[in-house]
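Deliverable D4.2, example record:
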Amino acid sequence: MSNISVQIFAKYIIEKLRKANPHLKFAVDESTNVLGGAVVHIPNAGASPTVVKNRSSFPATAVQRTDSFVTYALDVFTTTPTFVTWQEENEISYEKTDSVLNDHVQTLLEAVGDDVLYKWVTGIKADGTADSIPAANIIKTSGAAVAVTETGQSGQRKAFTYADLAKAQSRMNKMNVPKDGRYALLESYQYQQLIDSLSTNQMAAFQQTADLENGIVGKLAGFNILERSTVLAFNDNTPIAPGTALISTSNVAALCWQKDSVALALGDIKPFQDDNNPSYYGDIFSAAVKAGGRCRRQDWAGVIAIVQDAIEPAPTISGDDSVELLATATPKNRTYATSNGADVTVSTEAEWLTVSANGKKVTFTPQAYAYDAEGEATRTATVIVGIAGTDVTKEVTVTQPMAENN
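Output generated by the structure prediction step:
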């Protein structure tokens, strides 16, 4: 079999990379600053000169500008080798070599696309310690409760709505970020939630702004909207690295950015081919790509994550469902536990029973129930025990026997 052209393969990878990952089109390309195919090295201008109005002191003091450099290493993404036997090449009706190469390309594209998104919300501080997008740049979704969609999650989350995107627009405006070149990449289910939140007029305007050739499905709140099967996930306010299993409380996120605030860099792109390998009786293929990315601003301006907000389960209350009192005016105490740790409230409409709450302890104090030949042998009252600050309640049945006839 003929060898794969490295130049053609690299061009093919780059074209596919941008089609499969539309977000990579809309970032600063720092590939020209890659040194040795492995490290990005970018000059960073020092402080700008100050401006003095109507200067009166001479000579002016000269200040030397101190420049620095931004340096970050590219990660190496490699596929596990696949072999195609000589027998397969001769007996299978389709071109299996092409299919295998396509599998390697698609796997690389997904891995690089995921990793660059993660790099855009994580970084390294000047002192070398890890950094990530600050809480001030994280917006929580605010829609109605929806079921979780990702493996590992549990419970419900608040849906993604137009209001969340508008909030990101306002926050980015306050950052003094340019209003052109803003993009929002939404996970597929969150994209559908956004569509569901639009009015008829908003939907009509959205559809008219689509640029499908560039992967833009429409424009809303000043953002060019992109859609992808996966985007980001967070545990609390911490981004989760690609490939890490989600836990029950993990939350899916969309990413909003201005194109000058993030960067992408590609290094070496190389296919590997071992023809007529005697141990495998065929050809072996694999591929490697060097890639990286970063948020270009230390203050994180121009990068905002919209993260699912969890729907907290309703608190619960547990304790006795019934209380039996004596015929005398002797009080009884019961303790009720609340899942959120709040105190309890208590009430009843029964005239013969007084109830009070102190923390989580409820006291039931009856009036004495004297013997009455025409009265009920046992009287019953309903007491409502609730959780303070909520609508959660529990009914407790309280009974008191009549005193015996002496």
